Amino acid sequence: MGIGRDISVIYDSKEELYFSFYLDELYEAHYILSYESQPRNLILSMPVFHNRTKQLKTKTKKITKTLLREHGYTADFKVEWIRDKSHCLFYHNITCNADLNKIPFIANNHDSIIEIKPAFSRFNMDRVFSLNQRWLYQRHGIYVQKIIPVKLFEATFTPRKYLLTDKTNKQRKLKYQPRSLKTFVKTWWGKKTEKTT
User: Fold this and answer.
1) How does pLDDT run along the chain (197 residues), one tens digit per residue?
2) Of the residues 26, 30, 107, 141, which has the maximum number of CB atoms within 10 A of its CB?
3) Are 168 and 27 in contact (CB under 8 A)?
């Protein structure tokens, strides 16, 4: 479990690493209590076996063959939000009466379960995720949200560490004007104040 960022974690993709930069800033600013990379595996289907008996010369032997293996799912991240500070600004619970398209994260009882995807996937893994996502909600009542880090950064704020390239540590070329966390929060509260006046 990462409280802030656990530097011993090796991420499966650069996108996961970049998303951890985002979570680190939220943690430092006290919007999240903790985050965990690769939380526990959730079982979606149990294995299916075929049993039969085989007659030998003096006895019968029981033979078991696996027809279908167990199928499980492990999310990329679990984020535990600090309720008073983060609610409405960064997340809404899936059960609340709010427009979930106007908020960056969807939570299950104040925890967001996240699947990280690149902006482009040549293997079309979205199809597999979409099936697992439905299955998880039906079987466990857990909503897993797909996040594309670059789109999230553009819509909300860009982590400081992402502003520099991975190898040369030079300014990263972005196709949008990046905002800091502080600017994003200030802008959001400004819009909120305008609506109430």
Assistant:
1) 444 455 567 888 899 999 999 999 999 999 999 999 999 899 999 999 999 999 888 999 999 999 999 999 999 999 999 988 888 889 999 988 888 888 899 999 999 999 999 987 776 778 889 999 999 999 999 999 999 999 999 999 999 999 999 889 999 999 999 999 999 999 886 665 455 44
2) 107
3) no
Residues in the chain: 197
- Cβ contacts of 175 within 8 Å, gap of 6 or more: none
Q: Specify the residue for token string 């409405």.
A: 88
Q: Where are the alpha helices (DSSP H) in 69-161?
A: 83-86, 126-140, 149-155
CA atoms within 13 A on the CB side of 15: 17
Burial of residue 67 (CB within 10 Å: 0-12, 13-18, 19+) is exposed
CB 31 within 8 A of CB 82: yes
Q: C-alpha angle 115/133/148, rounded to 5°? A: 30
